[in-house]
Amino acid sequence: MRKEFEAVRELLMRGTRQVKLTDVWFAIHRRLKVGEVTSRGTLALTEDEKGQLRFWIKDETGCDPLLREHLPGSSRSPTSQPQFQKASPRAVFGRMLRLARQGGGEIHLRSGDAKVPAGAILSVEPEFIDLSKEVVLVVDDGALVRDWGSLKLPKELNNSLIIFRGQERDAITLMSVIDEQQPKLNVGFYDFTPEGMKLGLLAEHDALLIPARWIEMGLQDPFYQTHNHAELFMSQVDALLYLQEFAPHALHPLLSHMKTHKMALSQEDLVKQEERLLLLPLKTVM
Q: Which DSSP symbol is given to 275?
């Protein structure tokens, strides 16, 4: 991870949104599905993607690229004293579900009950929790999971178990656990973008959490005027085409509106601006 750490750190320190498409950056682009390859041989990134890269490096290495100049041990001299080798945070914590209870209530584990205070989350091995008794809300934005107390959710999600989706292997682990344990209700909350809707569809949720006013959001709407990212929408046309072909009928009016208004809204903006959220059912079980 040394090369990836150095590449992401340089990007963040320079404050730029474009980098030369080196082998390292191409590998990052392919692995994380971030950035857009330009005709000039560069990779163009959004601010959200830069934040994603920072948290990815922190998750993989345990080091914040904005606070550390290099990874521990990467610049030791041959005469340095040997150090004990420690497993990476990924190896130690990779399978753990990171979660909190809406409203701050107790989380019932097979090893005992836990109560998570505001500003904290609980990391739990899947074997210690029974999701079959839970209404689950999978959230794609780690910052929102961390600040779960700020989430204003529909009444159907009162007392729900909020779980961070995570990246790549974490997300695959979570999907596997949900498939195996079958929660009472499985809801996904993603960016209100073509890519976000696609992620939600591929995760096979029972419902998605979307802005309640989506049909009103357009050129005359103040929230849309301030927070919509049309350029992000344009970079996700492939995801929109996928949705138009494979999405259930319940999503078609929403996708048509999204396409007409080139709509791309982040979860963070929806929550910070206290936009009301509602459940969009994707399956007949609801």
A: -
